[in-house]
């Protein structure tokens, strides 16, 4: 059996922790639960993350970097802002389909347990990769004349609040159709709301 | 036999379309007299000179250092002589040509008022253009609106001492223009922590986010070689207008251009992505000392 590297083990812990935290909740999940799920001893777990709080923060950064990296790839494409919106929406919904624990964690743990993230993960610190990339997206859109100049957070909230809300409704099994069937109409709505006029 | 006067390098200072701001700025040089005593002023519109305007427009004489102030307007005449003829005559024979100020360097304010017509001596903004293309290797651009008197003094001093003056791609001496106007500003700590001055004229706070300060994008040593040896614009609360750059003048100088609250321009040589990453994190922290008046903070702490 090929030897699992330290980096791979870390990724395994991250995946397992994301699943457990988003399914069972942050406080109910214990380090022994996570260690058991990855098949390692609790002692060995601490070689990777020295506390549950530190793991919690690393998870936010992991998700933020994952999202940031994917949006960066879209930002760097030579396509219209309208098309970029389509692609960001697709990317986000695919992530909700394929790795729902990432978005669940973000919505149900990060945004709901602020006391865990208050120290060392406040403001932009842990989500900077993701927010920065959206800033670049908006900045490019306004520079090229495709988007209306307005307050950043008004636009950010409209875009990300909308997507987060849809994924939440989907998670609550309220949406009658699969998430993907809303992609087109949601992209169009976002573009119409943000476009230059 | 030559008199001592003959051995001095001859300066001829000529005006194009100008407000004379560079002349006035230069008159504030603390050691002006000592400096000028080492040259012969063949002609200057304000200072005592060897020749008159009528004499120099006969185009019979030569100078060693030709200083041109103001934008170049090809249709302009002085004493009925086309300025193009005057400029090329003196430039052809001069060892050094100095464009004094942003108008002479890149067109500046007077180019903005007649964009199809006026330009600098060898540049129209940052595009090579203007009457002295054939002599461009000898042209030193001292951009600034107006020039800092010490910058001209530095160049004349280097010439006197037969020192090579290295210039950047826009022909500005790199020793003066490798700095950014931001370097040495007393508000640097506020820039680091992204604390803005909310109102014009406040002593505390950085002027980058709201007040239009262009110093981090502007090559100049204004905050290093202080004006009148005392202060600078940003130190007293006026934003830097970027007057040494070829795109000067911009518009709405007292407000920062933003796209969705994100500064349109970021400091020279730093990618927007890196800049925004750092800014977002710095803005997260609340630093009480930097939020109000420093004096009040000191009293209370
Ligand atoms: S006011 Fe301008 S020069 Fe001063 S620190 Fe802020 S950006 Fe730099």
Could you characterize the architecture of this molecule?
The complex is a heterodimer of chains A (197) and B (301). Chain A has one domain (51-194): Tetracycline Repressor, domain 2 (Orthogonal Bundle), CATH 1.10.357.10. Chain A starts with 5 loop residues before the first helix and ends with a helix. Chain A contains 10 helices and no strands. Chain A is mainly alpha-helical and 197 residues long. Chain A is elongated and about 60 Å long. Chain B has 301 residues and is an alpha/beta fold. Chain B folds into 2 domains: 8-176, Rossmann fold; 179-292, Cytochrome-c3 Hydrogenase, Chain A, domain 2, CATH 4.10.480. Chain B contains 14 helices and 11 strands. In chain B, strands 2-1-3-6-9 form a 5-stranded parallel beta sheet, with helices on both faces. Chain B has a two-stranded antiparallel sheet with strand order 4-5. In chain B, strands 7-8 form a two-stranded antiparallel sheet. Chain B is elongated, with a radius of gyration of 22 Å. The model of chain B has no long low-confidence stretch (mean pLDDT 95). The A-B interface holds A 72, 122-125, 128-129, 131-133, 135-136, 138-139, 141-143, 147, 149-153, 155 and B 258-262, 264, 272-273, 276-277, 280-281, 283-285. The site of iron/sulfur cluster has 14 residues of chain B, from helix 10. Residues 181-182, 185, 187-188, 191, 206-208, 213, 215-216, 234, 240 of chain B line the site of iron/sulfur cluster (SF4).
Condensed summary:
Chain A is mostly helical and 197 residues long. Chain A has helices at residues 6-24, 31-38, 42-45, 52-75, 81-98, 100-110, 114-117, 128-143, 152-171, 183-194.
Query: What is the string of helix and strand elements of chain B?
Result: HEHHEHEEEHEHHEEEHHHHEEHHH
CATH homologous superfamily descriptor of the largest domain in chain B: NADH:ubiquinone oxidoreductase-like, 20kDa subunit
Name of the CATH first level of chain A: Mainly Alpha
Strand-pairing-aware structural class of chain B: alpha/beta
Low-confidence stretches of chain A: none
